[in-house]
Amino acid sequence: MLRTAFAALAALLLASAVQAQPLDGRLKRIAETKTIAIAHRTDAMPFSFTDDSKQVTGFTVDLCKRVVASIERQINVPGLQIKWVPVTSQNRFAVVASGQADLECGASTVTLSRLRQVDFSSFIFVETTSLLVKSASGLQSFADVAGKKIAVVAGTTNERAVQAQLKRRQISATVVPMASREQAFEALESGAADAFASDRLLLLGSFVKAKDPKAMAILGDELSMEPYGIALPRGDASLRLAVNTGLSQVFGSGEIGELFKTWFGQLGRPSVVLEVNYLLGTIPD
């Protein structure tokens, strides 16, 4: 009860801080047009994807809808319209930086190199890089990939994580960059690759759609930590504060638990790392 009361007070103070400042940057344009443009992935299940009805959905999408509801209250502009902008893993940050979208709600890891192009919100999730293989392949751990081909989505943190682990462990394997998650998964299914490296939950989302899910397995190795954030335009302090205020409200209430249960309930409780992340994300004024 005390934590909930503290979180509610902190969120109220943060919202007041946003309202006390005159609107500028993207936030001013959002208020004037009553529209907020959100970049989303079509293939990052269960975080951001389009379902069979072509609706934009996922954990991060639901989280961002709650952030938009908070921004409505902060700037006193009810009924903001969301313009959904589909992006790929290659162009997602350029779309935000160029102004085509105000934020990106997907499965994007915060890195120093990406911070040269965009800003990020508080962390919204913490993932790890893992390997998806065929159950009959005989691969039991990352140490078994010597001489094998590992498919990755080109330009992702997963590609860098695999390269770094191969170098550190002195394992000789071929990393095969692919243009999309679909191509990487198809390479694994067809035998063109022996493994597919990606974020663990994204791999789960991939093999749900496999021709034979039982023929697939995720190895236990965790090759990197992947802290996710909402990508934002660089230098726009007002929008970043508004987004983090919204996240603080969600993290400090029971909403984040409900979202986790909806999308990841089969995994049990959030990890200790995630629970600490959401506690720290409830930012005091």
Structural summary, described in words:
- There is one protein chain.
- The chain has ten helices and 14 strands.
- It is elongated.
- The strands form four sheets. Strands 8, 9, 10, 11, 12 and 13 form a six-stranded mixed sheet that branches. The protein has a three-stranded parallel sheet with strand order 5-1-6.
- Residues 1-9 have low confidence and may be disordered.
- It has 285 residues and is α/β, with parallel strands linked by helices.
- The chain is 41% helix and 21% strand.
- Given helix and strand content, the structural type is alpha/beta
Specify the overall morphology. Answer: elongated
Average pLDDT value? Answer: 90
Q: What is the helix content?
A: 40-55%
H/E topology pattern: HHEEEEHEHEEEEHEHEHEEEHHH
Quaternary: single chain
Radius of gyration, in angstroms, nearest whole number: 20 Å
Measured distance between first and last alpha carbons = 19 Å
How does the SSE layout of this entry go?
Blueprint: H1 2-20, H2 25-33, E1 35-41, E2 43-44, E3 48-50, E4 56-57, H3 59-75, E5 81-87, H4 92-97, E6 103-105, E7 119-120, E8 125-134, E9 149-153, H5 157-169, E10 174-178, H6 181-190, E11 195-199, H7 200-207, E12 216-218, E13 225-228, E14 231-232, H8 237-252, H9 255-264, H10 272-280
